């Protein structure tokens, strides 16, 4: 079964670009997410972390 899928994928023109694009999207998303977390304001993080503990 895998051989049939592999054969079909090899016959599509330009199919090699899809793994590269998916890797780039994955990489840039997580780099962006990491930068967002690194530069997020610490006082805002503390404020948000106290929300579950508030009674009101």
Structure notes:
With 56 residues, the protein is an all-alpha fold. The radius of gyration is 22 Å and the shape is elongated. Helices cover 71% and strands 0% of the residues. The longest helix is centred in the middle third of the chain and has 23 residues, at 17-39. It starts with a helix and ends in a 7-residue tail after the last helix. The protein contains three helices and no strands. It has helices spanning 2-10, 17-39, 42-49.
Keywords:
56 residues, mainly alpha
SSE topology:
Blueprint: H1 2-10, H2 17-39, H3 42-49
Point out poorly predicted stretches. Answer: none
What is the helical fraction, as a range of percent?
over 70%
Instruction: Give the overall form.
Output: elongated
Number of helical elements: 3
- Report mean pLDDT, rounded to a whole number: 87
- Oligomeric category: single chain
The span between the termini is 58 Å
Number of strand elements: 0
Major beta-sheet overview: none
Beta content comes to under 5%
The structure class reads mainly alpha
The Cα radius of gyration reads 22 Å
Strand/helix succession? HHH
């Amino acid at each position: 079964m895998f051989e049939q899928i592999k054969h079909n994928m090899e016959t599509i023109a330009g199919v090699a670009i899809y793994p590269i694009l998916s890797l780039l999207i994955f990489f840039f998303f997580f780099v962006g997410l990491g930068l967002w977390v690194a530069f997020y304001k610490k006082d805002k993080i503390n404020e948000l972390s106290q929300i579950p503990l508030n009674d009101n």
